[in-house]
Batch of 4 targets.
Target 1
Amino acid sequence: MVYLTGAGPGDIELLTIKALRVVHEADVIIYDRLANPDILKEAKDGCEFVYVGKEDSHHSMPQEQINETIYQNALKYENVVRLKGGDPLVFGRGGEEGIYLHQRGIEFEFIPGITSAIAVPQYAGIPVTHRGITVSFRVVTGHESKNKKESQIPWDNYKTDDTIIFLMGLHRLKHISKKLIEIGKPKDYPVAVISRGTTVDEKTVVGTLENIWEMAKDLPTPALIVVGEVVNLRKELEWFRKKAYKYQSS
């Protein structure tokens, strides 16, 4: 059995009970860069660990090889955990891994993880929806497939007041900002970039479409981008940084 498992956005306490159970039972854990490494400490004695992380556009192992690594371990071990940051099916390529296993007759399960698209803004004091401001939100990849000649992002659809969350888009922040201004968003439209969210290393920069790419250029990854009027609520709803500062000083 292969468990395609979401590790959550960073804070180990956001790992689900089901994910923790399969980690306890795992014979091998195949994990990526965005999964909190402390989760591995929960594994039983003798559990094998295989790192298949991807570092800022540099893949230590191509996805095709990751698929094969999961498959080969499934032939060898009874309980295989593929541990992925966030949720395995929110830009996590878990669907590709599941299809690869299905085509080779390997049984698998998806274990959902708390996605960073919602949890990271929430920890930074930014709700993705709020009554009277926005009734919906969009989650968009900031890193498109290089195999596509034209962008798959429907920019013209983003003229509404929906909150827009871009994942993995820090290095394309200038491009994203310009595209949103081109479709009619005001230059002073609020934007936040949140780096290493839900961890004690979390850093948030708040600006506008006109200046955010310059303000956030030195932030480390992983980072996500929140575009929308809900960003302004952070002044009243920020809570985690205060708690993190107390933790770091204690």
Target 2
Amino acid sequence: MDGYSYIVFDIDDTLLDFGAAYAAARKDMAALLGIRDDADFEKLDEKCGWKAWAESRLDDTGDPEVQAHYHEYYMQYVHMHFAYLREALALECDPDKLAACYLDSVSASIVPMEADTLEVYRALSGRYRLVLASNGLTKMQTQRTVPFAAYTYRTYISEAVGAIKPTAAFFEYVLRDLGCRPEECLMVGDSLSNDMRGAKAAGMDVCWYNPRKKAMPEDVEIDFVIGSLRELTEILPQ
């Protein structure tokens, strides 16, 4: 623990609230469709979204085929989602326009997970080199993390890296580009599969961001667990 030089942060649901981003996108999509963003629309949209997500296999990040085609499958998911939604609503709306609306809305969302997220991040940047490491589309994630850019040493987005978390290729790329040893890095993230397992397999220490207080897994080695980002200032050396 005394040797950390880099703190590697996941983005979605660690620094930024993806649920808030999606809620904003759903509101914009309802406006485009000319309908109310009410509970019925939310339920229908969620049903269509999970159907498309499952069919696109985006949870199977351990599968080599998904790893090789993740970003292609992600765009497939987006377009399938809104094709299903249009069909369910029986409305004449181009699903490509809905997809573009969704991508633009999510890209514009910078709602932090906690009120003091940026304050904590800025404070840590005075003691460590801060790194962002995320699965996702380069344009979207770069736009969303603008508030953090001034305090960030390096940013690694899977589309640009050419590999996704939790693959060894992703973390090897990060370590090679940073020019450091894995024990110099602490990975902070909410995903047990992508962040905790991936970083641990690469030799990094890991910190599970667990604000919902989920049960500790038995099959993942975790060095630290935090319920808020401010707790990082307490567990890291002064």
Target 3
Amino acid sequence: MKFMNTKRFASTVMAGALALSMAAPAFATGNVVITGTYADIEIEVEVPTTGTAQINPYGLPVTIDKSDRTTVDLVDQKITTQPMSIKNQSSIPLEIGASVTAVPKGDVEIKTGVAGSDKGKQISLELQVAALNDSTLAVATTDRTLEDKLIDKFAADATWASLASTNKGAFPAASKGATTAPTPTAYTGLATVGAATIEGNSITYGPKSIALFRLDGFLNEAPQKADSSADPWATTDGFEATVAFSFKPAAKMNVTIGTITGGTVTASAAKAWEGTEITLTGTPTAPGQTATFTVTETTPAAGQTARTVSVTGGKFIMPDYAVTVTATFA
């Protein structure tokens, strides 16, 4: 009997121990080790690897041939650059930055600004980036007419006439005879290119997916030597410029909910890139009412009326500026 009693006791203790063992994980704490490593996420952008420019003291016409056998002239550019473009082939808008530097050739000296007192072969160089907004450029990457359209845009004065100072970047100074480039000067926010539409292996540019860029500058038409004698421009005079572009996702625009009376309003995103569809949801205080939404520009330019964004079925497409949402319930 003692054996049997002892055995039963032992079994009872073991059963209790097993129950406690099974319950233990519910009360235990443990460490989770998470390892993070950098991984490239590619941004697809098409940028030329080389380009050509020429010193053109009088800004004489430089003829560009198009694929359709017509021509256009680049005029009034003392530094005349052949057409070049940046094409965003990613599904998000990108901000363009760049660092610039140049090595002078021949008797050329590069200055950050050429004053009227400079009579020799001093030149200033400036990178200019013009973001385009043209529905005719919303074409597939395989469209053979695209380059001709960009040549026309490149040659048009209107493309460059309204550029802001933020779209330009001066090259650093470099002395005559320098054999190595000076430290590059870096610029951010030169322009923004809009997203492309990607469907499988097909890429279609949007109206804002492409930017043009060129070198511009100033120089003396008839340079002189120190003794004031003529020192004509020679084929050995020139420069070798290097432009290193950088790209990052553009800043998203704010979607602000304004003062709402008679209910509440929520948006599917508080920030969004241009072209993103935003869904608005209105919840009335009084049952049975519905919301009518109004979306307007949050901060219009000085002297301008706030722009209004179309809302259909409680949805709107995010523009390239911050917006404020209001609503009426009825």
Target 4
Amino acid sequence: MVEMITNVNSAINGFVWGIPMLVLLVGTGILMTVLTKFFQLSHIGHWFKNTIGGIFHDKHITKHTEKEDQSISQFQSLCTALAATIGTGNIVGVSSALIAGGPGAIFWMWIVAFFGMMTNYSENVLGIYYRRKNERNEWCGGAMYYLKDGLGSYKGFKQIGAVLAVLFSIFCVMASFGIGNMSQINSISGNMKSAFNIPTYVTGIALLLLAALVIVGGLKRIASVTEKLVPFMAIIYVVGSLIIFFMNIDQCGAIFSAIFKGAFGLRAVGGGIVGSGVKMALTWGMKRGVFSNEAGLGSSVMVHSSSNVKEPVRQGMWGIFEVFADTMIVCTLTAFVVLSSGLVDLETGAVLSASEGSALVGEAFATKFGSAGPMFIAIAILLFAFSTVLGWSHYGSKAWEYLFGTKSMIAYKIVFVLMIYVGATMNLGLAWDLSDTFNGLMAIPNLVGVLSLSPIVLKITRNYVARILKKEDVKPMLSAFSDIEETHAEELKEMYKKEMYK
């Protein structure tokens, strides 16, 4: 039975993550980049100033909402989204890409991230524009809502939009148990056992209890934890990686040369033929790039939609920064650590170590940090993967809520927490494969929604640029629902008067 499931899943996974799917993912990013006139470049100063830069001059970005307000701050939404995206993909995913695709895979990972910025931007713009509140006064947004209310508003597409919304929600729930839970926990328990000899069942019980305390408390408690955990874990990992970067800075030229030559087949990858090397570099770079930053999957938009932001474009810009931080910074630093360690032949791209996944990155850190290297990676994976579990618990619960209603969410949360122990103590090879499949299946309905609603994204973006950047007197586009738009418009006027929202 297990063998049959494995074979069927392999066939589906091969289709889902084949070249056509990767072309669809990157193609969507290219389209949104062109339509918005390369927003991620042409307005780079603006989105930097109003995302990470805004933390230092705009109190509204980090200000917590009142107790009765169920929304979260913009910074909390970013941290919760980053909690879910900065995970094992930033360590295991990068090393897997290097092993299978050579140094050239990193170039294609960058390409996916560059265009993925605008895919993530578009998802978040649509998430804010089509969100609504549930019976608990919580914001609900995501692909299922812009599929049902956006795509479904087109003539003849009402049923198609509704069906795609349900399919997306089902795939999201399944993915949350796999890539968002058991696979992450399995990586933690394995690393804790190898680095510190802690039994897997002990890790499982500890993580189950910790997760229960946070997850059952709802989004505001998850957000309050992630806004402290994510900056801490990211800074620690980046600092560790930068130490090795500066120690090996003389190898920068050789590393970038290997990346670009491997990407375009100017030399064979791992001793293979040039054509095969380029295909492997392109496929694995794109595949692991998407796996890492999740742009196009429609996942992080569910937490971005819970932000207290009024402008859809404002939250869209946080989506750009999210992909930038995840791939351009964290994944690139991981790649540099491995490529500068001597464990990869920069001439051929061949990996000279028998280690795989996190063990390869741990061995790379060990070249400078000694025995502390693998321990450092084990702790990094503990933080990265556990934060991913917290983020995905929210994604899955919102998809569950869409399918079964608000009152049933506690049932999902209980099962989700219990699966943590299963993930820590079982061999989950099949779970990893199923995770990849459901992760990819999420992207299909989501990308249909983004592509079909691209004219809406373009109109909202042009409206924002005209009002905010060009100072033109035009009516804002804030929501697909007139009552919400009117409320947000009034609130924005007050914010502008108080100079809180420039």
